[in-house]
Amino acid sequence: MDHRMSEQELLACFDDALKSGQIYAVYQPKINHATGRMIGAEALMRWSHPVFGMQYPSDFIPVLEENDLIYRADLGIFEAVCRFLRKCLDEGGAPVPISVNMSRYDIYGKEYVDEIEKLRINYDVPVKYLHIEVTETSAIGGMELLLDVLDRLHDKGYVVEMDDFGSGYSSLNVLKDLAVDVIKLDMRFLSGNIGGRGGTIISSVVHMAKWLGTPVIAEGVETLEQADYMKSIGCRYVQGYLYSKPLNEEDFRRKMEQMDHEPMRGPMDLISTLNAGKFWDPSSMETLIFNNFVGGAAIFTYTDGKLEVLRINKKYIKEICTNVTEQEIIDSDPWSGFDAENRRIYEDTLKRAIESGDEETCEVWRISHSKTCGEDRICTRSFIRMIGKTEDQYLFYAMIQNITAEKQQYDQLYDSERRFRFASEQINVYAWEYDISSKEMRPCFRCMRDLHLPPLLENYPEPAIEMGIFPPDYADMYRDWHHQLEQGVEHLEAIIPLTPDRVPFHVRYTLETDEAGRPLKAYGSAALVVDKE
Ligand code: C2E
Ligand code: CA
Ligand code: CA
User: Fold this and answer.
1) How far is the CA of 338 from the centre of ligand 2 (A)?
2) Could you tell me if 159 and 97 are in contact, meaning their C-beta atoms sit under 8 angstroms apart?
3) Which residues form the catalytic set?
4) Residue 493: which CATH number?
5) Rounded Cα gap, residues 500 and 508, in angstroms
6) Highest mean pLDDT: which of 135-139, 196-200, 204-208?
7) Structural domain tally of the chain?
8) In terms of DSSP bridges, do strands 374-389 and 269-270 run parallel, antiparallel, or are they unpaired?
9) What would the DSSP string read from start to end of 278-335?
10) What 3-state DSSP class applies to 374?
11) Is the CB of 44 inside a 6 Å radius of any atom of ligand 1?
């Protein structure tokens, strides 16, 4: 039966336990939930007492911390991990990076970084196999001290993971000041309803982490639902009972050899010189500019056809004229307002922007939803620029203009012009002007198009007769009409079979005269005779 050791017992046994290997490491895998591959593992301290049985960190670590013993215990675990990695490497294995926990007490008046470096070099383990987990509570004793340790860890090449993010003390602001490489979000601190406040915290942390280009590991993941939810918001890395409890060295070694591995995806490559982290600081110049000096603007990622909005400014909301909040826009699927055609246009523009590295423009229609105004169909013009990328994810900055009114005006104009043309097509009327004194004829656009007439015909009607538009058996009659017009006959009309195909048209002339009644011009028209049955 395990017996929970008292403080006195722990302190009395500590030295011996450390020396004799009662204090040792177990390993919990970190998995990419999207691929099922292992990306690393965390070393967790265990104390197995020969008489009192298994002791758990939550009980004995606070005692070690209060008594200034945790430093030695942590170095002991670090050494155990180095020994394990050395053994794997010696035996030709390909280990995954192992994360070791650093207590906040390890940085006060200690040479933590120097000490672990000595151990690492002693065991000749490449630094890429070692990560250090720090907690944000380490900042309690002074931010400078922690920043200094982080700098030195980075100098030596260690990947630093921020442990227990979201446990309360942390804020997004801490993150932007601490240059950590990985964020660990503990699901247990955010348990309960994923759709509620916990979910909002999780999704904003994951969004911000993406923007910072920092991978996120969800830890304490016990259910498939939790893992799927995390994946749905773009966090694929999980650690927890769902995949594996912490395993003893032997079992872990076996698991590591059975599974495929993959590296954790590195931070996003930012193309411009802008400081991404500063976008999260409400008082930074970047935020000031983003909110005040540009028009409607959004920052979003594009991954395998999926769009995700990371940030939008107030003018963006104004442009699309919905009264929703930034958070509501961030939480919704940006494609939901697009139909297939407009989505294609927009995606093509993104692809162009990726290729050119330049600003690309497009105009698309989308439905904008709002609780109070219902649905609205709006047209936006976007100026899009890619500002960062990883192997499969792109970061974009887009400026947006609402051009719905402009578009509608144009459409109305276009529409009336189109209706007019459509109507005249339907009634099949050809028209022309005949100048009595010069015998010049000016055909309408349709005549030119359908009958291949030039804009001006001299000595009319002879060219039309020659071309066969007026067939020979009607030629004299038609010539005679023009004499009648010269003499002031005001109205002429007849059904004439026109063109070599002899299509029946209703042909008319109306004469225009000057004040004195002298003939000036005649207006001719030919309308297709439609059989009325
Ligand atoms: P931690 O660093 O957040 O470690 C994760 C803890 O969550 C571990 O508890 C692990 O066993 C547990 N855990 C993992 N998956 C699940 C899950 O799906 N559900 C639940 N409910 N729990 C899960 P453990 O090993 O008892 O460690 C507790 C804490 O003790 C650690 O929290 C860490 O803060 C500290 N600790 C452990 N090992 C060390 C160490 O070597 N050095 C220092 N300084 N602290 C350590
Ligand atoms: Ca940890
Ligand atoms: Ca943790």
Assistant:
1) 43
2) yes
3) 219
4) 3.30.450.20
5) 20
6) 135-139
7) 3
8) antiparallel
9) GGG-TTSHHHHHHHHTSSEEEEEEEETTEEEEEEE-HHHHHHTT----HHHHHHS-GG
10) strand
11) yes
Query: Which among 22, 27, 42, 44 is the best mutation to test ligand 1's pocket, defined by most ligand atoms within 8 Å of the CB?
Result: 44
When pLDDT is averaged across residues 126-153 and rounded to a whole number, the result is 88
* CB-CB neighbours of 474 under 10 Å: 16
| Cα–ligand 1 centroid distance for 186 (angstroms) | 10
Binning pLDDT at 50, 70 and 90, where does residue 190 land?
low
Q: Is residue 96 part of a domain?
A: yes
Mean per-residue pLDDT of the chain: 86
Quote the ligand 3 centre to 56 CA distance (angstroms). Answer: 15
| Percentage of the chain exceeding pLDDT 70 | 84
Q: Is 118 helix (H, G, I), strand (E, B) or coil?
A: helix
| Together in a domain, 247 and 279 | no
- Residue pair 209/216 in contact by the 8 Å Cβ criterion: yes
Closest CA to 10 of 74, 63, 68: 63
Ligand 1 lined by 188 (C-beta under 6 Å): yes
Please say whether the beta carbons of 217 and 199 come within 8 A. Answer: no
Ligand 1 close to Cβ of residue 103 (< 6 A): yes
Protein residue with its CA nearest to atom 19 in ligand 1: 220
Residues 289 and 381 in one domain: yes
Nearby residues for ligand 2 (ion, Cβ within 5 Å): 101, 133, 163
Please, which residues bridge with residue 67 across strands? none
Helix H or strand E encompassing 15: helix 7-20
Q: What is the CATH number of the domain that holds 132?
A: 3.20.20.450
Residue 489 lies in a domain: yes
For residue 58 and ligand 1, the question of a CB distance below 6 A is answered with: yes
More confident residue, 323 or 258: 258
Q: Are residues 475 and 386 in the same domain?
A: no
Residue 64 has pLDDT above 90, yes or no: yes
Output the CA 102–ligand 2 centroid distance in Å. Answer: 8
- With tokens 């922690």, the residue in question is 146
Indicate which residue's Cα is closest to atom 20 of ligand 1: 220
Each residue of 88-116: pLDDT tens digit?
A: 999 999 999 999 999 999 998 789 999 99
Q: E strands within 33-179?
A: 37-49, 53-55, 98-101, 130-135, 159-165
Residue nearest to atom 35 of ligand 1 (CA): 57
